[in-house]
Design brief:
The chain is an alpha/beta fold. The protein is built from 10 helices and 20 strands. The strands form 3 sheets. Strands 4, 6, 7, 8, 14, 15, 16, 17 and 18 form a 9-stranded mixed sheet that branches. Helix 4 packs across helix 10. The longest helix has 28 residues.
């Protein structure tokens, strides 16, 4: 294919990040083609916990988590596990993760994440309105739960950090706790209610609806596995699994947990790891959950969806090739039954997805060092759905040569 036949913008990845980037670029009048091996929102973006976690500004590597790591790792079905055979490969990432918890790096990461979240909320509300999907938004708040006074006190520095950025919350107990979520186990002595926390009716349905909007603006989809990418200053070449090639003036890499493999082909080594997350989606009638419940001491949440009750979370740092270990989703479900004693755990659908995670909890958003034609948009960890519309806006600004609304230096592909 000669350069005259080159497409304008190719996006590799049909998850929520790629879809939002496509919608923003198509709104700006650009011709966009999204490539994905399975479809629109069929992989990690389909089974997440459905939260717009705009108040979740704390980096994962904060001191509390570092302190809990040994205890968590001792439990193979606990909030965090690492298959022993994978540990040698993971070690460099873990060292970077540990270093990211240093006080000066923690503060910089917190400020960057807070700025990103402010933009994320504004951009999502605008995109929901443009795409006619505002009806999928739920504004019920979230309830974080504590099993002891000690656990509650340990959470207070994190809430103080959020308060600095204007995030509202209130600590609750007794009757107010019971009113916010009837039927809780008495083991929970306190909670924190975040009224501004939002969820969506179903993340897969939202993603597909945003894509339909992008299509009305001219965005196209091609189902294909991208085997290789190459780029110079004038554009990019994509080689598909069937051996054919596509030329594009601009390439956006938004392939989630596989993105670093494509970046490496372009000469960029980015320390991305896959956090394998597990869940079970129960029938809607399993329990009357009023809002997203957060069990941070156990690393999981319960979310009421339009399509069921999703019990999931936890982290397994095990790469993208190992088969799923569904004992982890079963362990979460057993805990959920203890925490909500009336929960009917029958009829669930198990799932595992790959969260693309970088050691400092910030995504990579920026131009590839070797080519102005390539833009990276990946590594959002637990916050892909939350930050997708903001990332789409930032990608549009980069491609169009406009000044982004936030400083992109903390998200640079060259920061590692």
């Amino acid at each position: 294919m000669n350069s005259d036949a080159a497409m304008d913008i190719a996006i590799v990845g049909g998850g929520i990040i790629g879809i939002c980037a496509a919608a923003c670029l198509a709104e700006a009048g650009r011709n966009v083609t999204v490539f994905d091996r399975t479809g629109i929102c069929e992989e990690t973006s389909s089974g997440n916990a459905a939260a717009f976690a705009f108040s979740d500004v704390l980096p994962m590597a904060h001191k509390g988590m570092i302190r809990q790591l040994p205890k968590w790792l001792a439990d193979p079905l606990g909030p965090l596990s690492i298959p022993p055979a994978y540990l040698p490969k993971l070690l460099p990432w873990l060292i970077r993760f540990w270093r990211a918890g240093a006080p000066e790096k923690y503060e910089a990461g917190l400020v960057a994440q807070a700025g990103m979240m402010k933009l994320a909320e504004a951009e999502w509300m605008a995109l929901l309105d443009h795409s006619g999907t505002r009806g999928m938004l739920r504004e019920d708040g979230s309830l974080e739960l504590y099993e002891s006074e000690a656990e509650f006190r340990a959470s207070l520095p994190g809430w103080a950090a959020r308060q600095r950025f204007g995030i509202g919350f209130r600590h609750v107990e007794g009757e107010e706790l019971a009113r916010l979520q009837p039927g809780l186990s008495p083991r929970f002595v306190k909670g924190t209610f975040v009224p501004g926390w939002k969820t969506v009716a179903d993340p897969k349905l939202l993603g597909k609806a945003v894509w339909i909007y992008a299509q009305t603006k001219g965005a196209r989809f091609e189902r294909a596995r991208i085997e290789r990418v190459a780029a110079d200053q004038d554009g990019a070449t994509l080689t598909l699994a069937d051996g054919t090639t596509r030329q594009a003036r601009h390439l956006v890499v938004a392939a989630g947990a596989w993105s670093h493999l494509l970046a490496r082909q372009l000469g960029d080594r980015i320390p991305l790891e896959a956090e394998r997350g597990y869940n079970t989606t129960l029938p809607k009638a399993a329990f009357d959950v009023k809002r997203q419940l957060v069990f941070s001491g156990h690393g999981f949440v319960i979310t009421p969806l339009e399509t069921g009750l999703r019990v999931g979370g936890a982290v397994e740092l095990g790469g993208i090739e190992r088969p799923p270990n569904y004992a982890r989703s079963k362990a979460l479900l057993q805990k959920a039954q203890k925490f909500l004693p009336g929960l009917d755990a029958a009829g669930g659908r198990e799932w595992m997805g790959f969260r693309p995670s970088l050691p400092d909890s910030l995504p990579v958003i920026g131009r590839a060092p070797g080519s102005r034609a390539v833009v990276y948009a990946f590594g959002h960890g637990h916050l892909g759905l939350t930050q997708a519309a903001a990332t789409g806006r930032l990608i549009r600004d980069l491609v169009l040569g406009q000044t982004p609304p936030i400083d992109l230096a903390p998200f640079s592909p060259q920061r590692f």
